[in-house]
Amino acid sequence: MRKGIVQLVAIGVVIGVALTLVALLFKWLPTSASEEMDRIQGVYWFVTIISIVIFSLVTAVIVFSVWKWRVPDDDDADGPPIHGHTGLEILWTAVPAVLVTAIGIVSAVVLARNADAGENPLEVQAIGQQFTWKFVYSDYGDLPSGELVLPVGREARFTLTAVDVIHAFWVPNFGQKQDAVPGIETEILVTPDRTGDFAVVCTELCGLGHATMRAKARVVTQKEFDAWVEEKQA
Known about the structure:
By secondary structure, the chain is α+β, with helices and mostly antiparallel strands. It has four helices and ten strands, in the order H-H-H-E-E-E-E-E-E-E-E-E-E-H. The strands form two sheets. Strands 3-2-1-5-8 form a five-stranded mixed β-sheet. Strands 4-10-9-6-7 form a five-stranded mixed β-sheet. The termini are far apart.
């Protein structure tokens, strides 16, 4: 009995290590460039760890059972009748319920924090139109721009709308994504936490030119942002 448990645990550990290496060695998500994306990645890894543990346990039991109790090809006899184990049935019902509840709570906390606009967000209108993006800075006299420029460390509130069909605003490194819908306004919040150049993409199929609906996003220092605003206003 003890030998079988050791073998079962060994199989589970091998599977868990292999899955962990796959999770860590491959780049599954874009490099984070915002506080919101950091929180989203936290949820991702929380769920990934739970998934690795459960998958390793279930797969180890399956592999061990096939290895130890597989009958010969010519054995057509019925196995002995086995009554269910009430304690195990309660356990494997309660544990998933607890894990799903934990995932729900963590996700709700992250969604709430990612929707908190703070005290003084930068107001930006993002307008989608086949097949381009236009950005209007409400805090600076509705200053229009074909590229998105944001100061690092300051939260920006995007008010999204569309001129023609449904589009979707997404900067992969920022994590936040939201539809831009004609006739209504939607919102997302982004707080860039590092400077650099990024891509604004449309993630809603919006016509033949959908794949070309791109814009440049630049995250700069506050001083560089102020200089850019002055240059645009001039």
